[in-house]
């Protein structure tokens, strides 16, 4: 019989589970893994939509008709369905109860123990099972556990026998513990991490805890040891540096003992210098090895310091996710992710919001990433009761809270990269949290304690001001804090503890904007010690369509209700690890060296690292005239200290007048010497922009038709047609009437981005998405043979709305193929504060597919989201201009463009476009309406046209999907405006 009452009893957490120990994999003395049996692979499986349907003989072999892969989530293998929520519980809130019918998966496999030894200890270890499970060995109950993202280990020696043994695991999708596992992610179930059978001798090193402190130029290495039983256990301890033995000591462990070593002049571990030593614990039968770094974490002078030096967190939040396998991820994927983080100069990771796979911490130690390790605890949805501390201050839930704190600390305590423990996320600020903090500080005083929920209580609900320091946690930590609030914290002497942003700049869809401004605040105010971007990776689930196309699914696509829609698509990289433009924006903002222009000859070189001294570094600069290189030299930088800058002078001597001049800087590859996985850092500036003279006039206009309805004029091999009633016009080829260019539409809308959020609601309320035009007058002037002037006065307004924009657009057609477009607009009546964009849209034939420009590239850019772009001369095809966000939205804009040339390959025409100032452009083959209405990438439909958008300005991006709105200086305020474009048909 199965005792189901445990599923609604928060005090009953485990049965027969071993005390949590540090993660390690014991080996035989010969270095082999003979004592670890991998139980991953195909298991027998039986799925029940309700636990009530489980038969009384559920352990019988004939109940298992299906197969399933372990590790893996069963929803990703065809059983049940994925369900996505951010905050809301998918079940009625009535803790500790969830559903009346709980889906259950029962796993079964056999183990052949040919070398069974009755004196050995046999442990079965589960690295992760969601949500909770019973364990049966040879049809006998051997254990139970709650805590999905925590490992669990059971001594099953008494249940085993020589030969074939049967392991059965009954996994429940829901229990009372689901209330405290309400993280922003998919609800996925099953044995999703590895299962291992570990054979160990009668006595062995069960647990160890290594800590380091610095004393002058030396390090004290402290080691706590625990044997499995009280019997004396001979042990040899060795600490090695590469092949050199630094420490070697033999002793006998009697259950518990401590030992200390002094290491002289050690190499220290930081995220910039992740130097590791190797610890070896060797008994007669086993050897345990562990790589560790020597470092000290402290708060001193109101600052978080590593090895006595203040640090800045250039961090990111990370969920575990794979677009095919759910939360089952491979070592190869984890290493790819860490390398990509390092290549983007990310130096810290917050494990959001649970302990992650042990191998990931190994990689953080190896490559150098500071870690906030977080307990598997979130009850965000409980806030809908009106009491966010309903569970967090309830003593009945204290055992569950404490268990999760103990689990994360005890398993991960030997990973050097972990410098902060976190009691969880978005779960209020209750007495249970305070107990967790007190225990963790006593158990591990070598690390800091984080609790964002306590900081949330320090915020004034009305003014949003941060009013006081936290008491229990070691430092202040908030989410998505507004710039002005953060600035006041930096200036407020009453806030004495360090301050970080555990989540900021929400990277959902196109965005985030405003990252640079946050970094500026971090650099200006020492107590603002950085933050962690939300989040690393989109959690879209891959689907292959019948036609072979690939799309990605999000909340609601599986019929899951309630759901939070596409809020799960909010990462710097896409589910398949495609790098989004924002990834490169982060790389630019976080880069260790940056170059700022003071004037044409002087540039500021800034070292933003915490520890790295750059020495004997050659910086290359190149000066281009148009695309021709005419200067290439190097500047030797002898020394550039952390957090310091120097000014370098470039002897620029430009004599050319009628050309565009840019200067490019390249900081060479730094990876070998400075532990950054990059090729180079690049920056460029436009020194001179030349506006070309008007094309020589060779042809005159010949008027073929002119009456009250239309004008038809030819010039050279082209024809101009103007409709005089509404001012529509087009230019086509004279011989075969192929269209070249036609009157553009005024464009004030863009396909809404995820981060437009609040603004989009206001824009739609004002009807900006459905503006209609009314032609007020059309005036034609032709005073000379080589010019025709057309002025169109219009009003743009929205149905049932008392506001509009009066527009006067003047087109001056020159017979040399030049068209000057001058637009003047005035908003009238009760108009909106901002607009998505102000510009023109052109409908071109599909042959206009090649784009050359001087401006920012190669990726998209917006006024507050430059995405690592630099100035250069660029060439791209239409397919390269944009980016396919999984939830379709505005993309592909190029901010700060000096000129643009669009080529038509068929009729060998080119359009040269310039503005009276820099402008913005984008182009695509799908309509703006399709882009705005589509909800998945497979719903985008290419047309046979090219849609070219020339913008006076676009509204900024911001991160309002879950953060601050666009800053004032980046908003597109609706006020009287004027702009000019010069188009030349070449």
Short description:
Its EC number is 3.2.1.23. One of its GO terms (biological process) is lactose catabolic process. The chain is mostly beta strands and 986 residues long.
What does this protein look like?
- Helices cover 11% and strands 41% of the residues.
- The strands form 13 sheets. Strands 49, 50, 51, 52, 53, 54, 55, 56, 57, 58, 59 and 60 form a 12-stranded antiparallel sheet that branches.
- It has 986 residues and is mainly beta.
- The protein is built from 11 helices and 60 strands.
- The chain folds into 5 domains: 4-200, Galactose-binding domain-like (Jelly Rolls, Sandwich); 205-298, Sandwich (Immunoglobulin-like); 320-541 and 571-588, Alpha-Beta Barrel (TIM Barrel), CATH 3.20.20.80; 593-669 and 680-688, Immunoglobulin-like (Sandwich), CATH 2.60.40.10; 717-985, Beta-galactosidase, Chain A, domain 5 (Distorted Sandwich), CATH 2.70.98.10.
- One of its GO terms (cellular component) is beta-galactosidase complex.
- Keywords: Glycosidase, Hydrolase.
- Its EC number is 3.2.1.23.
- Residues 723-984 form the Beta galactosidase small chain/ domain.
- InterPro entries: B-gal_small/dom_5, Bact_Beta-galactosidase, Beta-gal/glucu_dom_sf, Gal_mutarotase_sf_dom, Galactose-bd-like_sf, GH, GH-type_carb-bd, Glyco_hydro_2.
Short key terms for the protein model shown above:
about 1000 residues, Jelly Rolls, TIM Barrel, twelve-stranded antiparallel beta sheet, beta-galactosidase activity, glycosidase, B-gal_small/dom_5, beta-galactosidase, GH
How would you summarize the topology of this molecule?
Layout: E1 14-15, E2 27-28, E3 36-38, E4 41-48, E5 66-70, E6 83-85, E7 104-113, E8 121-126, E9 129-130, E10 132-137, E11 140-146, E12 152-155, E13 163-172, E14 185-187, E15 190-191, E16 195-200, E17 205-215, E18 218-227, E19 233-241, E20 244-253, E21 256-264, E22 277-282, E23 286-292, E24 297-300, E25 303-306, E26 309-310, E27 313-318, H1 331-343, E28 348-351, H2 358-367, E29 370-374, H3 398-412, E30 418-422, H4 431-443, E31 448-450, H5 452-456, E32 476-479, H6 483-491, E33 499-504, H7 515-524, E34 528-533, E35 541-544, E36 550-553, H8 581-590, E37 593-597, E38 602-607, E39 614-625, E40 628-640, E41 645-649, E42 661-667, H9 671-674, E43 681-688, E44 702-706, E45 710-715, E46 718-723, E47 729-733, E48 739-742, E49 745-747, H10 757-765, E50 772-784, E51 787-797, E52 803-814, E53 818-829, E54 837-845, E55 848-857, E56 870-877, E57 894-904, E58 909-924, H11 928-933, E59 945-954, E60 977-985
Parallel strand pairs: 27-28, 27-34, 28-29, 29-30, 30-31, 32-33, 33-34
Antiparallel strand pairs: 1-11, 2-23, 3-16, 4-5, 4-7, 6-14, 7-13, 8-12, 8-16, 9-15, 10-11, 10-13, 17-18, 18-21, 19-20, 19-22, 22-23, 24-25, 25-26, 35-36, 37-38, 38-41, 39-40, 39-42, 42-43, 44-45, 45-46, 46-47, 47-48, 49-54, 50-51, 51-52, 52-53, 53-60, 54-59, 55-56, 55-57, 57-58, 58-59, 58-60
EC number: 3.2.1.23
GO molecular function, one term: beta-galactosidase activity
Keywords: Glycosidase, Hydrolase
